[in-house]
């Protein structure tokens, strides 16, 4: 019997379709302004580099659960910044959040016949994680429209990638109540929780206003990639239901899914310091404001985008791929909305993770 490769279960990598437009944008005499991916471009704050270097002499195996100091930094940050109280048993560092998103259904024991629900417009890895486990991914914003298949896991992502939409307390409470009635786990991807710009402030699924003080069945996924420019370090954590977190810990110990000790030290330093995060947020705020004004001035419509690192933009004269081509002709690369689901076909996602110099170039090319 020949085995089917795992890639047979996974979709084609959509970014290859953007390559011709990347080439067009790169040919611009002023160089490309790449706003297609949300990767940090500013330096790693010196204090975090120092914490990494100070822990460089780490010959022994690190603890999968994280050092007690790191766990204290995580619980302290959650309470201070987001009004969420968890004990050290309810937190677990992960190797960036993408690996947790991709493996969570497998780690929770989901498989064929189980349904994983994720937002209609979504970071693609929720779907991938379901497929890796052999479970069935379903894209649905309204839970009431779901059929009778047993839902084991529901992903929410507020603030959203790609739209920057924020789900309010009332919405999140409904998701939690729905999932609790059915025994489903709610996993809330909160990697942009600190990056609110306007309207209702983003709130964690673990906040007592949402959870009613019980974390049963709830997991919140956090990342330091954007807050602290640590995407290259792979630094994230999951927090919430103690029983679920301890189950994840037990499986991850067996599987060797461990955050390196120097990265654990850098993570702790990052969580203990708000100053660098506030400075980085202000950089993004300024870039967002300039790009937003330039896009609207050039006739683009911005929807949602109250939080996170993206502007969700559409233009009355172009469908999404035409819009990608139009902007590529001006040396600006953006991502077509359909990369995040069919509902995104009319829009493009514009990341504001570019240097001030590149943002200035984009603003000038959009007409001032
Ligand atoms: C919604 C969302 N979740 C998770 C991630 C993964 O981030 P990381 O693996 O760097 O923590 C990203 C990255 O852009 C994202 O947009």
What percentage of amino acids are in beta strands? Answer: 5-15%
Helix/strand class: alpha/beta
How far apart the termini lie comes to 62 Å
Number of strands: 13
Give the name of the CATH superfamily of the largest domain: Type I PLP-dependent aspartate aminotransferase-like (Major domain)
Helix content: 25-40%
What sequence of helices (H) and strands (E) makes up the elements? HEHHEHEHEEHEHEEHHHEEHEEEH
**Would you tell me which CATH topology of the largest domain applies?**
Aspartate Aminotransferase, domain 2
Q: Specify the CATH class of the largest domain.
A: Alpha Beta
Q: Over the alpha carbons, how many angstroms does the gyration radius reach?
A: 21 Å
Bound molecules: pyridoxal-5'-phosphate
Low-confidence stretches: none
Number of helices: 12
Biggest sheet record: 7 strands, mixed
Features:
Aspartate Aminotransferase, domain 1, 13 strands, globular, 7-stranded mixed beta sheet, 4-stranded antiparallel beta sheet, Aspartate Aminotransferase, domain 2, aminotransferase, alpha/beta, 2 domains, binds pyridoxal-5'-phosphate, 368 residues
Description of the molecule:
Helix 2 packs antiparallel against helix 9 (261-272) and helix 4 packs parallel to helix 5. It contains twelve helices and 13 strands. It folds into two domains: 8-37 and 276-367, Aspartate Aminotransferase, domain 1; 46-272, Aspartate Aminotransferase, domain 2, CATH 3.40.640. The longest helix has 23 residues, at 275-297. By secondary structure, it is of the alpha/beta class. The strands form three sheets. It has a seven-stranded mixed sheet with strand order 2-8-7-6-5-3-4, sandwiched between helices. The mean pLDDT is 96. Pyridoxal-5'-phosphate binds next to helix 4. Pyridoxal-5'-phosphate binds at residues 38, 96-98, 101, 123, 157, 161, 189, 191, 223, 225, 231, 236. Keywords: Aminotransferase, Transferase. Belongs to the class-I pyridoxal-phosphate-dependent aminotransferase family. InterPro entries: Aminotransferase_I/II_large (IPR004839), LL-DAP_aminotransferase (IPR050881), NHTrfase_class1_PyrdxlP-BS (IPR004838), OxyQ (IPR019880), PyrdxlP-dep_Trfase (IPR015424), PyrdxlP-dep_Trfase_major (IPR015421), PyrdxlP-dep_Trfase_small (IPR015422).
């Amino acid at each position: 019997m020949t085995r089917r490769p795992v890639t047979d279960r996974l979709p084609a990598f959509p970014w290859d379709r953007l390559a011709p437009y990347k080439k067009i944008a790169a040919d611009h005499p002023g160089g490309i302004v790449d706003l297609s991916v949300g990767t940090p471009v500013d330096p790693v704050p010196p204090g975090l580099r120092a914490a990494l270097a100070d822990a460089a002499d780490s010959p022994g195996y690190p603890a999968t659960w994280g050092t007690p100091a790191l766990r204290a930094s995580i619980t302290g940050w959650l309470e201070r910044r987001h009004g969420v109280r968890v004990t050290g048993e309810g937190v677990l560092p992960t190797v960036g959040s993408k690996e947790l998103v991709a493996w969570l259904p497998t780690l929770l024991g989901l498989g064929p016949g189980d349904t994983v629900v994720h937002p209609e417009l979504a970071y693609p890895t929720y779907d991938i994680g379901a497929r890796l486990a052999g479970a069935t991914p379903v894209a649905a914003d309204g839970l009431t429209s779901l059929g009778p298949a047993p839902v084991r896991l529901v992903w929410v992502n507020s603030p959203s990638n790609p739209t920057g939409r924020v789900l309010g307390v009332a919405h999140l409470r409904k998701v939690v109540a729905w999932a609790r009635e059915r025994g489903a786990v709610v996993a809330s991807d909160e990697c942009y929780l600190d990056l609110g710009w306007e309207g209702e402030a983003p709130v964690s699924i673990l906040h007592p206003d949402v959870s009613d003080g019980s974390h049963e069945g709830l997991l919140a996924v956090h990342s330091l990639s954007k807050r602290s420019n640590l995407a290259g370090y792979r630094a994230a954590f999951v927090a919430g239901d103690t029983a679920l977190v301890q189950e994840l810990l037990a499986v991850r110990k067996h599987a060797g899914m461990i955050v390196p000790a120097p990265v654990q030290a850098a993570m702790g330093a990052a969580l203990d310091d708000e100053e660098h995060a506030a400075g980085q947020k202000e950089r993004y705020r300024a870039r967002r404001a300039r790009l937003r004004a330039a896009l609207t001035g050039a006739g683009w419509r911005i929807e949602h985008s109250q939080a996170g690192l993206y502007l969700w933009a559409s233009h009355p004269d172009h469908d999404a791929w035409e819009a990608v081509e139009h902007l590529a002709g001006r040396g600006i690369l953006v991502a077509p909305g359909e990369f995040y689901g069919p509902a995104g076909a009319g829009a493009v996602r514009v990341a504001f993770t570019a240097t001030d110099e590149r943002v200035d170039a984009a603003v000038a090319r959009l007409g001032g």
